[in-house]
Amino acid sequence: METAPPQSEQEQQPTQSNEKPGLRKPVFTKVDQLRPGTSGHTLIAKVLSSNTVLQKGRSVSQHLRHTRIAECLIGDETGTIVFTARNDQVDLMQPGATVILRNAKIDMFKGSMRLAVDKWGRVEATDPADFTVKEDNNLSLIEYELVNVVDE
C-alpha cells in the first residue's frame, strides 16, 4: 500500500493573489422542475411569444427611466412558463429566439408562477436550441394557493 507524498508548505498555503475565485459551472434547470418561491435558476429556453403589457415614456419626468414590460411564453422540452421581461430584456425576447436565463427567480402573480430575472441575473441570447418545446405543459396555468400552517 503506497501513501501519497506529503504536500510541501507552498501547496498547503492558499495563494494570496488578486485573482478572482473560480466561477462555478452553472447547473441548468428544466422548466418542469421550477417551483413557487425558488430562485437562482439557470435555464435555456425558446421564446414562443412576446406581448408588451406596459410601456411608460419619459413624459412624467426626465429622471424616470423608460419602462417596458412584456410577458413572454418561453419553454423547453419539459414544459412552458410565462417570463416577465423588463426594459432591455424585452428586446432579446423575440419569438423564435433561444435565450439563457441566469439567476432567474419565480414570482407569484395572481396565484400562478412567473419567471423573472432581476438586476442580479442575466438574460442572454444564444445559438438556436435543438429541442422541441413541450407546449401542453404550461406551469403558469397552474394556480397555487398560499396556505398558512399553524404550529400547535
TrEMBL record:
Low complexity: compositionally biased ranges: 1-17
InterPro entries reported in the protein's UniProt record: NA-bd_OB-fold, OB_Ssb-like
One Pfam family here: OB_Ssb-like
Domain Single-stranded DNA binding protein Ssb-like OB fold per the UniProt entry, residue ranges: 34-125
Region entry Disordered, spans: 1-25
Record PANTHER family: EXPRESSED PROTEIN (PTHR31472:SF8), OS05G0244600 PROTEIN (PTHR31472)
Name of this protein: Single-stranded DNA binding protein Ssb-like OB fold domain-containing protein
